[in-house]
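Subject: sequence -> structure tokens, single chain

Hey, anyone have a minute? Need the predicted structure for the following. Not urgent.
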Amino acid sequence: MLFILCCFNLKVFGEKKISSLNESVVKNSVSQNETISDSRFFISMRALSNENLYSKADVFGFKIYYFLTYNINPFISFELTPLAQLQSGHIQSVDASEKLENKLTLLKGAMFFKWMKESYFSLGILNAEENYSSILASEKGFFSTQILQSLTFNPWTFSGYVLGAIPNSESSVSDQNAKESTPLLTTAGLRSRWKVNDYNKTQLRVSYFKYSQIPTSVSTQSVQSGNTPYDFKISDTERNFKYDYAGIDTSIEFKKSVTKKLYALGEGSFVKNDKAPESLNQGVQLIGGLGYRLNLEYEIEVLSGYYKIEPDAVIAYYGNSRFFRTNHQGIETKGALLFKKQQFKISFYYNDSKLIYENPAQSDEKLYLLKFEVSHDTF
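Reply:
Had a minute. Here:
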């Protein structure tokens, strides 16, 4: 299978600053009578061609993100990230389940109630990829509630958190007695951050997750994307999971100066589903490389990595399409040229993926991504 993706991204940033306070004070506190807001746009366009045994798609897509943070007072803030997605092209599938997606969704829309620096209670829609590794969850907005407590000892910040979420799903009901329970995702974890500057920073996160009450609409689509089905079929078109999903989710990301101009950077993730047997229950992803500052205006970065996502490491429906959900292993390469002064970036991404186990609903994949990004301060 060939998976081709070309993107153009445009970011527009907006920030309202308080002239009566210097920058260091603004970052840590706000007077009762002042507010700070930050907003930015992110626009992407992509052309996609994808084909397997069950579907074929030739689609042009257009996405618009809007990121807003509004600090009501020193203790209450609101964050909003709507996403408009428009598609045009041709899609065909065996059961007509694949459709063009033209919709407006929320990745984030939540209130944050803070009692100290980086310690808060949040309620609303949170972007799943901000709280889990890139293997466990992709870009989806889950209705969630979270409590996070942090302690800071510069340059270190240590945090503990608990999170409860309702994963997105849609199900059909034939009669009132057949209604399913609301799905749940519960998490408890620890996080540590070390940051001296933008070229010397690290974040490590370890958590325990548990899915429960997952509806058949999710399990059916997940089985088609690599998860192991239960031997007994619910119907000719519906399948259930053979295993539950609960276990350990870890991730790390870093950037570290090596010399005045050279720096190392990378990220990694590891997931283990304790409810599935060995050889089916783990996912690992590692990517790293080097960056070089040509001068104050230009930088280049080159990274290469490997991943292996076994069939039942995660629920495929919520997994990352970057790794083709589950039951794939492969290599990925990234390259980027950054224009710091112009706030412009050109990057290229390549992914060559192979099946771990033969599955008639899946195949080998290749992905090419060319991306252009530009940012602009509007205030």
